Amino acid sequence: MRTEHLTVFIVDDDAAVRDSIALMLGLAGYRTAVFADAESFLAAWNEDCKGCVVADVRLPGRSGIELLEALRARGSTLPFVIITAHGDVATARSAFRSQAVDFLEKPFDHAQLSAAIETAFALEGRRILRDDGRRADAEKLGRLTAREREVLERAAQGLHAKEIAAALGISPRTVEVHKARIMDKLGVRNLAELVRFAVAAKPPDVP
Known about the structure:
Layout: E1 7-11, H1 15-27, E2 31-35, H2 38-44, E3 51-56, H3 64-73, E4 80-84, H4 89-97, E5 102-105, H5 110-141, H6 146-156, H7 161-168, H8 172-186, H9 191-200
Helix pairs in contact: 6-8, 6-9, 7-8
């Protein structure tokens, strides 16, 4: 995963800290975007945001942890690195319970922050690859006809050609033709790969 396509979203109400982190990361080759509070970041956020969030615990309005929880409620899985000048065990526990990648106490050094961001980017990279794979599978499934989707669903259930033919009111030979076309459209080589697509497929629209 090429990290130049990922952004570090810095959320801190202290302008000096915000700019210092952005400068440090920018010099290290990271792309950054800065926000003074959780609400401004939430207003800018959309599903195309990729990277990770570095957020202070104490912010005007929602805290950094509340920002994390608000994004999770919206379906976002953006990794979070929580930073604070007022660290304590309870706050750290709350951050990790909300699935923060790391919890850093100020002042932290460049190596600590970079390590946390790289961990977050690795998680984000895997998530993007999974999403890309699902989209590619969905596109392939979209090439199937309604009848082919019916055959696919039943083949994945372990039914043989004669059983599928009986269920759909077609000949076994026609079932085999459909299966060959399905495998060609999906680019699969065997039944195991066919089943993987079938699990992702929605029930057929045609009765």
